[in-house]
Amino acid sequence: MLRRTFVRAGIGLVGGCAWVGIPALAHTPYRQWVVYRRKHLLIGCHRQDPETYALARRMVAILEERLPAARARVARAPTPGRLASLLGTDQLDVALLRHADASAMAAGKGDYAPYGEIALHTLFLHPEYALVGRADIPARHAWLIAHALYESDADIPLAADASPPLPWHDGVRSFLAGQPLPD
Predict the structure, then answer these.
(1) How many CA atoms lie within 13 A of 2 on its CB side?
(2) Residues 145-181: pLDDT tens digits?
(3) In the β-sheet with 73-77, what is the strand arrangement from edge to edge?
(4) Which of these, 140, 118, 21, lies nearest to 70 by C-alpha position?
(5) Which domains does the chain have, with CATH numbers?
(6) Spatial contact of 87 and 95, defined as CB atoms under 8 Å apart
(7) Closest by CA position to 105, among listed 80, 130, 135
């Protein structure tokens, strides 16, 4: 009986050690994060630039009104580096960044060098900020986001005539060209 107790304790200890190692591989120990982010369009921003939070909230309000099926929410990271990490590991698809940060993050330069290059494209252009998304977002989704934001009557300043810090996403490019919603 004592032997069985030691064996069970040993198995529990090994299992516990393996479980403790799992959160170190991801940003969150919550297994429902994958489910949550599939059900919601999360717009990433960060605490070091408070204006990104206010602008992201306005974008979410527009998306809630014009694209309710997206279930848009703001996801606020502590630093832009954390956003780079989340985007680079496919845990976040969309983020609101200053133009210079978007360019540096995509190139994996400067403060973003530890995260490597991240394939990002522009979804919406504000005079100071760019809503960027992973390159692998479906063109249909990018088109819908652009349509909702650009066709809105909200007070978000547009910079549609300016050059984006990153290439336009294919779905946004087709929207801006007046093409119909892609399949």
Answers:
(1) 0
(2) 999 998 887 766 676 567 889 999 999 999 989 999 9
(3) 73-77, 42-46, 94-98, 129-134, 120-125
(4) 140
(5) 30-176 (3.40.190.10)
(6) yes
(7) 80
